[in-house]
Amino acid sequence: MSNILCEFPYNDHKHIALVKLNRPKVLNALSTDLMRELVDKLFELDDNPEVRVIILTGNDRAFAAGADIAQMVEATPIDQINNNRFRSWQQLAQITKPIIAAVNGYALGGGCELAMHCDFIIAGDSAKFGQPEIKIGTTPGAGGTQRLTRAIGKSKAMMLAMTGEMIEAKQALDWGLVAKVVPSTTLMQETYETAKNIANKAPVAIKLIKESVNKAFEMSLSDGVDFERRNFYLTFSSSDQKEGMRAFLEKRDPEYKGN
Ligand code: HXC
């Protein structure tokens, strides 16, 4: 059985791909194989000109309950170096198209880190987030101490990582970890509506926004603003910028070509 499922389920919108984590018996524990399959699939979608937005999800019980503990329990540091566990995680950052995490159930440890690698998170009201690695004698390892701290601040990140406690979706919203909370039963529909909104925008400008926002974590404010301005200038070499502004002035809907 494949660890990853990919569908184009939205007949009225061919530009949206849905990727599902598919190890339900172990709450989508993130084995190295799963991570490799996920990254391969994301690269394939990133290269497919038809695809404009990717939704990443799990199932009702779990987005993902972390890295696969059974796979790690007896590992040595050298095993981990030799199996390149983190290469897939580093490759996630190379995806240029928007990825929305649609989270129901548990997003714990590596599962929370995977959701935070996405561009934003929409959570069902059943979602639970946490970095519980401390409960099994270790620490977050795929960016949890860094991305969670940037998302919710030092004090709350310290508390979550040091206690291993989970927070509910509403709390995650109040703390700025997730963009939106919706009823769990309508999570996929609501996420689709947001994906559709983005897929109807100029695709190159969307990629440049992703790049510019991500630079906010890497650069000083003045360097980041300079980077943003250059991306802004760059959009003026696209037909989509001309189309978007002309359509506004002509009071019609734009038709973007992605160039
Ligand atoms: C392997 C896991 C797993 C995991 C759950 N399972 N989480 N297997 N790795 N991370 C398996 C269980 O062993 C069990 O298998 C089945 O999934 C159902 O889980 P239960 O525990 O029976 O379910 P429940 O009682 O509802 O509890 C749910 C839960 C709990 C609270 C989410 O499963 C849990 O605490 N899981 C571990 C969470 C965690 O510590 N995550 C961090 C991992 S370290 P069987 O065969 O018994 O049915 C990490 C580091 C990342 O993520 C570093 C970067 C790579």
Automatic annotation (TrEMBL):
PROSITE patterns: ENOYL_COA_HYDRATASE (PS00166). InterPro entries: ClpP/crotonase-like_dom_sf, Enoyl-CoA_hyd/isom_CS, Enoyl-CoA_hydra/iso, Enoyl-CoA_hydra_C. Transmembrane segments: none annotated. GO terms for molecular function: enoyl-CoA hydratase activity. Keywords: Lyase. Gene3D superfamilies: 2-enoyl-CoA Hydratase, Chain A, domain 1, Lyase 2-enoyl-coa Hydratase, Chain A, domain 2. Its EC number is 4.2.1.17. It holds the Pfam family ECH_1. Belongs to the enoyl-CoA hydratase/isomerase family. This is Enoyl-CoA hydratase. It comes from Halobacteriovorax vibrionivorans. The lineage of its organism: Bacteria, Pseudomonadati, Bdellovibrionota, Bacteriovoracia, Bacteriovoracales.
